[in-house]
From TrEMBL:
It holds the Pfam family DUF2507. InterPro entries: DUF2507, NO_sig/Golgi_transp_ligand-bd. This is Uncharacterized protein DUF2507. It comes from the Bacteria.
Length: 142
């Protein structure tokens, strides 16, 4: 595999970081660039990353969240219409405390796509931001 086509797990394993640079892009540069399209584009970018990551199990999804500095993803429960996850950890708490318009659409798009792939059913994901964590509700699309 050439350097330009390294797999996402390889990139994450070999290029560890705190994620602060990504947060600068996400909360400072991209809003200026994308304007009103930011929310939709972040969700779509997350879905695209989910397609390229090709996670084969929930363990791989959880590991990717960890390696990406997206937080600790915890499976909470399965419901009739989908699944509930918690996203927590120091990075999540710090983002919620620091960023006025904190959002988790990239993570939501990624989780929607990977759950769609793992369960062979179209899914959507919505976020509920709490004081120190985020609830991610993955719902089967109708």
């Amino acid at each position: 595999m050439s350097k330009n086509n390294a797999s996402i797990p390889t990139i994450l394993t070999n290029l560890e970081s705190t994620g602060a640079g990504n947060d600068l892009l996400r909360y400072v540069a991209l809003p200026d660039l994308l304007g009103e399209e930011l929310d939709l584009m972040m969700y779509i970018l997350g879905k695209n990353i989910g397609r390229k990551a090709e996670c084969q199990s929930m363990e791989e999804v959880v590991q990717l969240f960890h390696d990406s500095n997206w937080g600790n993803l915890i499976y909470e429960k399965e419901k009739r219409r989908g699944f509930t996850f918690l996203l927590e950890g120091d990075i999540i708490r710090k983002r919620i405390e620091t960023i006025d318009n904190v959002e988790f659409r990239l993570e939501s798009g990624f989780l929607a796509e990977t759950m769609s792939r793992l369960h062979d059913q179209s899914c959507e994901c919505r976020t509920i931001i709490k004081k120190d964590h985020v609830e991610l509700e993955v719902l089967y699309s109708k």
